[in-house]
Amino acid sequence: MNATPPAPNPLAAPARPTRARILDAALDRFGTQGFPGTSLDEIALDVGVRKQTVLYWFASKDELLAATIDHIAGQLVDEIATAITGVGVGFVRVEATVRAVFRTAVRRPALLGLVRELNRLGPPAADQLTALLSPLVDRAVEFLDAEMAAGRMRRADPRLTIALIYATVVGVATEPEALRAVGWQPSAAGLRRLRSELLAYLRAALSHD
């Protein structure tokens, strides 16, 4: 007598599409060991498929990188947009943005690691990320410009201010080895202390005298 197969669990999470799993595996590999140091065989092994399956969805490693850049840009924009929705004016919006990026760094370190890797790779990968993030940057520049005009923040070049904040946040989130050299330890408590110090620095730099 054949055994009756178990009934499907309606509460079980549905299996994620293969393409999405490949993108997640590529993000983790590219963000932790770099693009040149990652092979399609490794990504296929992480997903549990053959290399030919990866190539079915992405014709080459470069095409996979381009799709992964689209993937992480969308995640970053969503994280930051969600964090600042409903947030008022002034420094609280800057603080909400920094906290969102740090949450991302804690939950998915490879995401910001890939941002660092793209900066090292240069064009065309870095240019692709810049183009995808430019609408978010433009919104941030408009916000800072309005805050400075209203006297709630120190007058400065808004785009240069954004560049400095970006470099600082991505740097502290993705360069743990450099931070260890000055005595910082990559732990949850260490990240909280680092975030607090960064926010205090930014508040002092942007506060209006």
From TrEMBL:
<dbReference type="Pfam" id="PF00440">
    <property type="entry name" value="TetR_N"/>
</dbReference>
<keyword id="KW-0804">Transcription</keyword>
<keyword id="KW-0238">DNA-binding</keyword>
<feature type="domain" description="HTH tetR-type">
    <location>
        <begin position="16"/>
        <end position="76"/>
    </location>
</feature>
<dbReference type="InterPro" id="IPR009057">
    <property type="entry name" value="Homeodomain-like_sf"/>
</dbReference>
<dbReference type="InterPro" id="IPR036271">
    <property type="entry name" value="Tet_transcr_reg_TetR-rel_C_sf"/>
</dbReference>
<dbReference type="GO" id="GO:0003700">
    <property type="term" value="F:DNA-binding transcription factor activity"/>
</dbReference>
<keyword id="KW-0805">Transcription regulation</keyword>
<dbReference type="InterPro" id="IPR001647">
    <property type="entry name" value="HTH_TetR"/>
</dbReference>
<dbReference type="InterPro" id="IPR050109">
    <property type="entry name" value="HTH-type_TetR-like_transc_reg"/>
</dbReference>
<dbReference type="GO" id="GO:0000976">
    <property type="term" value="F:transcription cis-regulatory region binding"/>
</dbReference>
<protein>
    <submittedName>
        <fullName>Unannotated protein</fullName>
    </submittedName>
</protein>
